[in-house]
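User: Hi! I have a protein structure encoded as tokens and I'd like to know what sequence might fold into it. I'm fairly new to this, so please keep things simple.
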């Protein structure tokens, strides 16, 4: 049976501890177990893209007066810290992993090379992507979309930190916000829904990559999201 190739996008905030910046090792271990449960389904080729919001946020750069490009490179380095922490937790659970980065740091991680990444997936290794795209002005959402397109993945699991899908307005600020269960890529773009940044959303639309947005904070949801689209929002050109 052909395996399903999936990219899992995890926000940096999910690896942190609320407003306290840094890596929460308890949260990392919990997420690693959830990722292992997904991997253990047995029909998955899995890669993970991590953000950096628990260590470095763009608004921090504005407050400090740091130039945008420098701030983005700092964020890329922060994603590598998160990737290494997640790798350690996964390997403690017995998973075979590789961290691949867009920035060259050969002493701690492999440089991203598409053919090498495909080889890792075919050998049932979990790839963790750090370093974003390696260039400023792009988010880790774009990294997830780009890696999915390059590697032939047809599904991105957008694991949200406390948000259970896509709404017509911010559900944390509007009690009457409407949750969508299904959307087309065109609807996301036309309605300017904040699923991911515009570049990432366009990449997914043009390459027919489905996106499933769900709350990762409920135990078991990450593994469940690979095949059950009933509890979040599915974005697809094939929605009926």
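Assistant: Happy to help. Inverse folding works backwards from shape to sequence: for each of the 240 positions I chose a residue that suits the local structure. Here it is:
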């Amino acid at each position: 049976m052909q395996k399903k190739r999936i990219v899992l996008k995890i926000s940096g905030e999910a690896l942190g501890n609320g407003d306290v910046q840094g890596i929460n090792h308890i949260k990392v271990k919990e997420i690693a177990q959830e990722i292992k449960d997904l991997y253990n389904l047995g029909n998955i080729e899995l890669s993970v893209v991590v953000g950096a919001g628990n260590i470095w946020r763009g608004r921090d750069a504005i407050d400090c007066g740091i130039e945008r490009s420098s701030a983005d490179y700092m964020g890329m380095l922060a994603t590598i810290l998160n990737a290494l922490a997640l790798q350690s937790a996964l390997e403690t659970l017995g998973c075979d992993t590789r961290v691949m980065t867009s920035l060259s740091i050969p002493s701690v991680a492999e440089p991203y090379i598409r053919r090498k990444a495909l080889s890792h997936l075919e050998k049932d290794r979990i790839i963790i992507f750090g370093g974003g795209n390696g260039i400023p002005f792009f988010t880790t959402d774009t990294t997830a979309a780009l890696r999915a397109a390059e590697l032939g993945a047809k599904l991105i699991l957008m694991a949200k930190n406390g948000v259970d899908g896509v709404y017509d307005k911010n559900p944390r600020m509007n009690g009457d916000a409407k949750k969508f269960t299904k959307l087309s890529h065109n609807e996301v773009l036309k309605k300017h829904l904040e699923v991911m940044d515009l570049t990432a959303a366009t990449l997914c639309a043009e390459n027919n990559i489905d996106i499933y947005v769900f709350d990762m904070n409920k135990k078991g949801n990450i593994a469940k999201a690979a095949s059950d689209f009933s509890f979040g929002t599915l974005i697809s050109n094939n929605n009926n």
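A useful reference point when you look it over: The domain at 4-235 is CATH 3.40.1160.10 (Carbamate kinase). Feel free to ask if any position seems puzzling.
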